[in-house]
Specification:
By secondary structure, the chain is mainly alpha-helical. It has two domains: 213 residues, HUPs (Rossmann fold, 3-Layer(aba) Sandwich), CATH 3.40.50.620; 95 residues, Tyrosyl-Transfer RNA Synthetase (Orthogonal Bundle). It is built from 14 helices and five strands. The strands form two sheets. Strands 1-2-3 form a three-stranded parallel β-sheet. Strands 4-5 form a two-stranded parallel ribbon. 37% of the residues are buried. The structure holds tryptophanyl-5'AMP (TYM).
């Protein structure tokens, strides 16, 4: 049995990228391994949410995780800020994380481009906090999408550096992982290669979107200006539509449109109509569960408490070991 861990920033509704890149991947493992899944609310502070938004976002992500199939009895489902041990490990790991390597991180460069007026130290040390999240449970498999690959590489660097410095093999190496395929990158509807919550209006389909919103977003998705040309490679926007079909539509439907693309009879309007209906069929049961679970405060409270207790037990054990390895000894 391996230790598996994954997490999601609490900055908004979950979208199809989160679902297919991380959650579905995790759900398939939760009954076979020792699994932790958490809501990264400390990470969300890099964008300075208001206190009420912070709380509301954590609640919504918790509801949507549960609706998407995370079983709080099988896995340990918790909120990052309920486990203060994470922040101490973060501080300890920061002593062996170097400014240059943090500045070179792609996601840091991307974030400072996006929020030039708020280049806070939390953005720079984001990968260290992420390593602390993973190492606090000594996890080895991390079900995430392709965009997190570099962060996992950094987590391995910090784990290895700690091991070398203290001549120990305490931390195992964590790897980004997909249960049944390569790491996934679900494309956006605006022609960009990534679906994301901060990528702008119309890029992402959220699990909680109603059918009318889904139809509107998909019908407005970027497509080519002209018709398909035989023998030409697919343009990015068209490839994106096919990649979305690959995750939500039946194999027959996918083959039908691929064939139509090949023989240039394809009409993108028809393909988008079908794609919208397949997304709606897929998200409708999730949307209904989100609405149901969202009403049940008692259940959410029970889940959060149970998760916090289980996560703290494991975290306290690791932190105690780490303090001892580093050389902290009590005088009383
Ligand atoms: P976040 O909140 O941006 O995304 C959560 C998860 O969803 C995946 N994902 C995607 N996968 C495929 N295609 C997409 N378009 C797509 N968009 C998002 C992400 O890869 C991720 O798995 N830093 C993390 C949260 C985090 C974490 C951790 C994850 C904090 N600590 C420790 C794993 C382990 C983040 O911001 O993910």
């Amino acid at each position: 049995m391996e230790t598996v861990l994954s997490g999601i920033r609490s900055t908004g509704h979950l979208h199809l990228g989160n679902y297919f890149g991380a959650i579905r991947n995790f759900v398939k493992m939760q009954h076979q391994h020792h699994c932790y899944f958490f809501i990264a609310d400390y990470h969300s502070l890099t964008t300075h949410p208001t206190p009420s938004d912070l709380h509301q976002n954590v609640r919504q992500v918790l509801v949507e995780y549960l609706a998407a199939g995370i079983d709080p009895e099988a896995a340990t489902l918790y909120i990052q800020s309920d486990v203060p041990e994470v922040t101490e490990l973060f501080l300890l790991l920061n002593m062996n994380a170097y400014k240059g390597e943090l500045e070179r991180c792609t996601s840091f460069k991307e974030k400072i481009r996006r929020q030039p007026d708020n280049v806070n130290a939390g953005l720079l040390t984001y990968p260290v906090l992420m390593a602390a999240d993973i190492l606090i449970h000594r996890a080895t498999k991390v079900p995430v999408g392709k965009d997190q690959e570099q962060h996992l590489e950094m987590a391995r660097t910090f784990a290895n550096r700690f091991n070398r410095l203290y001549k120990t093999g305490y931390f195992p190496q964590p790897f980004a992982y997909n249960f049944d395929s390569e790491l996934l990158k679900i494309p956006g509807l605006d022609g960009s290669t990534k679906m994301g919550k901060s990528e702008g209006e119309g890029n992402a389909i959220f699990l909680a979107d109603d059918p009318a919103t889904i139809r509107k977003k998909v019908m407005r998705a970027t497509t080519d200006a002209g018709p398909a040309v035989a023998g030409q490679p697919m343009t990015q926007p068209i490839e994106n539509l096919f990649n979305l079909m690959r995750v939500v539509s039946s194999e027959d439907m996918l083959q039908h449109f691929l064939q139509a693309y090949e023989d240039t009879s394809i009409r993108y309007g028809d393909m988008k109509k079908q794609l919208a209906e397949d997304i709606i069929a897929f998200t409708t049961p999730l949307r209904e569960k989100i609405a149901d679970i969202g009403k049940d405060n008692n259940y959410l409270g029970r889940v959060a408490r149970m998760g916090a207790e289980k996560a703290r037990e494991s975290a306290a054990k690791t932190l105690g070991d780490v303090r001892e390895i580093i050389g902290f000894k009590s005088f009383y």
